[in-house]
Automatic annotation (TrEMBL):
This is Ionotropic glutamate receptor C-terminal domain-containing protein. It holds the Pfam family Lig_chan. InterPro entries: Ionotropic_Glu_rcpt, Iontro_rcpt_C, NA-bd_OB-fold. The lineage of its organism: Eukaryota, Metazoa, Spiralia, Lophotrochozoa, Platyhelminthes. Its main location: membrane.
Amino acid sequence: GKNNSGGIALIRGGLRSKLPILRVLTFMRQPFTMASPTEYYGFSISVLNHLSAGLFEWDVVPVAENGDLLPLLRQGAGDLIANPMQMPLDNIKNDSNVSYSSWPLMYTSVSAMGYAESPKLSFLSPLFPFSWNVWLAVVVAFVILSATLYSIDKISPNDYRRPKFSISESVFFVYSSFMMSKLSAKAIKPSSRIFILILWFASLMYCTTYGTNAFFLLIRSNRALPFTSLDGLYNQSGRYYRVLVENSTSSGILAAQPEGSVYRKLATADLWVESEEAALALIKNQTALPDGRQPVYVGDGAAISYAVAKSCDLMMAGSNELYRPLFLAMRAGLDPQLRRTINDRIQSMSDRGLLDQYKDTYWSEIKCSSNDYLINAKELNSIHIEQVSGIFIVLACALGLSFIVLLLEHAFYQLQLYWHRMKVNSRLEFMKPYQAEVTNVTPSGIRVRVQGWVEFLPNQMLSPDPTKKMTAADLEIRIGDSVEVVYLGNDPKTGERLFRRNAESVEVGKIGI
């Protein structure tokens, strides 16, 4: 038979010790009192073992399942109740046979439990991997990045008169970067290149994060109840059958609430069952009730949270509603000193966190099979802004770094311009002709080497008659030809030297011939 002392039998010389023996009333209820072939165990047994050490021994007085323990305690059938009990409101005035501990053993509530449902896919489902604040941040970043790319490309001094990106091209380029699609457009200016490089890196992080979360959401949808409170359950009465246990404490608490309250209305069950086990079996088996509605059990929060911890298919709602403490009930006729010592030990266990440790031992085990669930459904949620803030920090760094490079471009350009002016002004004379070698011919003009410097002459500076709009090809100017150019001074804005082909010179010859 089982060791009624929870596996602790004090034997001295074949006789039991002289400690008082208390009769403990209980019935089998997970996770409070459970039994193996050799001993009792559970939350209540762990608490009793701690309370009784060196103070008293105890024997279990088994009671029929879901039996009413308080009348038995009042009648003297036991000395204390193992299962934590709710203290009746009129206990102090009207119940002289029962004494409750000064400190609660734990707290519970009236909660609801149902089978978790998978969300149905809709045209908004692709938005679910990110929360709304992430999508808002993406839109804001998209606008800022497009404006930044256009601005730095336009005001960069490198090829500043011919910016690469228009407003529409900037918008499309950033959008394509977010989508990780290939573009034929390429950045030329250093500031734009650095900006786009970091943008692509951030886009890679963004797409990887989105894709990973979307993938797991597709293979393991985040199942949930369509309500989170008892009030929400009542508003969805047309979808569910409310299941309550007959004559249970939870149904009594609901019935005792003010008339017209949601809790009072929930006290009227659609289906009454005889025990918690029967109610849990209805939910776990997804038993379809009339009209195809699914059952939802409304009962003790402690029992429901334990059932939910054992199964990833079940979910709990209303965990903090009608919150109430549960106490250790003792026979008032017990030795007063013994009752005071028990109270002191319960207070000490509470202060030291032992009661919470015992509760965690039995309520925190998640028993999902690793073969059935690669990821717990409870862990799958939309990604929030704080989880991807690093991506936006990278983008902010891209903005800052690109503007720093832009400033360096301007500084280098001004330095180069100053050096250019200082070098060339003293070597060339205004309106004086110079011999130049053609180094490159383009549709818009030619590049020539004058006094060791390569200069550009547009087409209108080549022909003696600018109105004819003749090109270098029309004038039969080729690479390697020698032409005579006239120095016209420097452009006041850019500092570039200006030349035109000498109209009086008609000789064109090859250098080296």
